[in-house]
Design brief:
47% of the residues lie in helices and 12% in strands. The protein has 322 residues and is of the alpha/beta class. The protein has one domain. The strands form 3 sheets. It has a 6-stranded mixed beta sheet with strand order 7-4-9-2-1-10, with helices on both faces. A two-stranded antiparallel sheet has the order 3-6. A hairpin with a 3-residue loop joins strand 1 and strand 2. The protein is elongated.
């Protein structure tokens, strides 16, 4: 794997990854970090009444932003009823999307590449594991079709991130859908798209600074999720497509919880939410309507996107009010 592709795989996994909730034991207390999306605003968790996925609305009188809560992880090219989306896309002033691409600044590229090479040193990761964990890991990577040197690192968080990416690729899971399709449909209808990108350099360095215990806890959870398979995600994706918000929230979240232990992750999470809130507020300044797509938990969590918008005085309605 090239340095460029390796950087992209590791950092996108760190920023966006999301394996298991129900099937995997919680992070050990010694490594635990508060989950920024762990507590939901329960009155916002409402099953949709319209066909297809659930929508929330944010309005200020003369403008409405229709907000689609998207799954954090789903099967590639997942089918869903797009009738409501297509209707709301027509005449929209803008489509606001969650970030997918991570840019590298010119000054940060060399530093990120250097950090990646540091992560890639030290021989096969399995050599650092006790016999029982090594046997489990070897069985998993063999099933994924990967040789030992594919995980050439001494950093447990880096190994976990790579394993999470390989597991998703092998099982056909992605964090890009349905956002990817929505972006294509917006371009088809010539609707302006707003989508942020972020510099990956600090994230790559943060992986190196993550405490070993936290990194190992993350690796162990990813290993357990890979052994368990994609059943939880597939069930949650079906629930999402049917407007069953609580069922969709049961999606895999192993890495979303443990990635919070990476230095700077909490700040990064807060910035992403603040940027989405700001984009929605800008859309509300143009009379008419707009469309926004926000991952479900950041949308519905305490301190999340809708919670922040309500605190600013905007009217927020649930899928049950349509």
């Amino acid at each position: 794997m090239s340095v460029r592709n390796g950087l992209r795989a590791l950092v996108l996994a760190a920023a966006l990854a999301a394996p298991a909730w129900a099937q995997v034991p919680p992070i050990p207390a010694a490594a635990a970090t508060p989950d920024p999306d762990g507590v939901l605003v329960e009155e916002l968790v409402v099953t949709g009444r319209l066909p297809g996925p659930a929508w929330w609305t944010v309005s200020d009188g003369d403008t409405t932003v229709y907000v689609l809560g998207s799954p954090s992880l789903a099967p590639k090219h997942m089918d869903w009823d797009r009738a409501v989306f297509e209707r709301r896309l027509t005449g929209a002033s803008v489509v606001i999307l969650p970030f997918q691409d991570v840019k590298v600044t010119v000054t940060g590229a060399l530093g990120a590449a250097f950090n990646f090479m540091r992560l890639r040193g030290g021989g096969p990761f399995e050599a650092t594991l006790d016999p029982a964990a090594r046997a489990r890991f070897v069985a998993v990577r063999t099933r994924l079709g990967q040789p030992a040197d594919h995980y050439a690192t001494r950093n447990p968080l880096a190994a976990g991130l790579r394993l999470a990416t390989d597991y998703r690729d092998r099982t056909g899971l992605t964090n890009s859908d349905p956002t990817k399709l929505i972006k294509i449909l917006a371009a088809r209808d010539k609707v302006r798209v707003t989508q942020k990108s972020y510099n990956l350099g600090p994230l790559m360095g943060a992986i190196l600074r993550t405490p070993a215990a936290a990194g190992r806890a993350c690796f162990d959870e990813v290993l357990a999720q890979t052994e368990a398979g994609p059943g939880v995600t597939l069930a949650a994706a079906r629930a999402w497509a049917q407007g069953d918000v609580r069922g969709a929230l049961a999606n895999e979240r192993t890495y979303e919880r443990c990635i919070a232990s990476v230095p700077g992750a909490q700040t990064f999470d807060a910035q992403v939410k603040a940027d989405l809130v700001a984009d929605i507020e800008r859309a509300l300044k143009t009379p008419g309507h707009a469309v926004a797509v926000v991952p479900l938990r950041p949308l519905l969590a305490q301190g999340g996107v809708l919670d922040q918008l309500r605190s600013k005085g905007y009217v927020v309605k649930t899928p049950g009010e349509e």
